[in-house]
Recover the amino acids of this structure.
């Protein structure tokens, strides 16, 4: 079955550490890729998206993601995290010719001050 | 900044009762969605709605579920006869065009007793 996988369920790190969250998908063809974030008590917000063009995508709050087509991956990175990055991060995909989001399982990130 | 709103934030109901979850999408958006997240599980797609009709629905969206856009601003999800397994967070989302982002509401937590 077509799916989206996030490798880590929980990540704990200290402020100023670098963050990388993995995301792999199993769809063939042209996909649209997203990272959403859910801060404690808040709704899902878009961090960044990839539709086409430069595979290195920059988003809000210093986040970036790299689309590697050959690896079916769209990993999220931030060079130096802050305590305020504590949240749950969701990778999501829109399949070719589709319009619904298919989500990964989410990664809870805890940044210790 | 315009946002998607949802009411109520929490709904507790008895098994077998009908519930209606309400959403007000962003005003000029054309595509509307419901997703849900059962505790500890992935966010999963329920249904999409465009041009006053369902454009896609998942296997979860059976005859117990229905959606409506009754007045041009609200978008509702009705569950006719709730089951224990319907307990989840229900998210509404909307987007403007085919290449636009889906914007999510804060969710309604439904608890079926």
């Amino acid at each position: 079955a077509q799916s989206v996988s996030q490798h880590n369920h929980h990540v704990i790190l200290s402020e100023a550490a670098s963050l990388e969250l993995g995301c792999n998908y199993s769809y063939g063809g042209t996909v649209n890729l997203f990272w959403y974030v859910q801060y404690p008590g808040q709704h899902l917000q878009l961090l960044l998206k990839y539709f086409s063009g430069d595979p290195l995508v920059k988003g809000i709050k210093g986040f970036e993601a790299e689309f590697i087509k050959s690896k079916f991956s769209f990993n999220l990175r931030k060079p130096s995290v802050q305590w305020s990055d504590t949240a749950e991060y969701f990778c999501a995909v829109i399949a070719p010719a589709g319009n619904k989001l298919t989500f990964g399982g989410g990664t809870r990130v805890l940044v210790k001050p | 900044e315009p946002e998607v709103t949802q009411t109520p934030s929490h709904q507790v109901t008895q098994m077998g009762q009908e519930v209606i979850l309400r959403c007000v999408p962003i005003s000029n958006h054309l595509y509307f969605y419901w997703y849900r997240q059962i505790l500890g599980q992935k966010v999963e797609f329920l249904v999409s709605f465009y041009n006053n009709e369902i454009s896609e629905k998942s296997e979860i969206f059976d005859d117990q579920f229905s959606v409506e856009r009754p007045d041009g601003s609200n978008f509702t999800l009705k569950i006719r006869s709730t089951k224990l397994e319907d307990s989840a967070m229900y998210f509404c989302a909307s987007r403007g065009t085919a290449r636009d982002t889906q914007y999510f509401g804060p969710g309604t937590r439904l608890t079926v007793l």
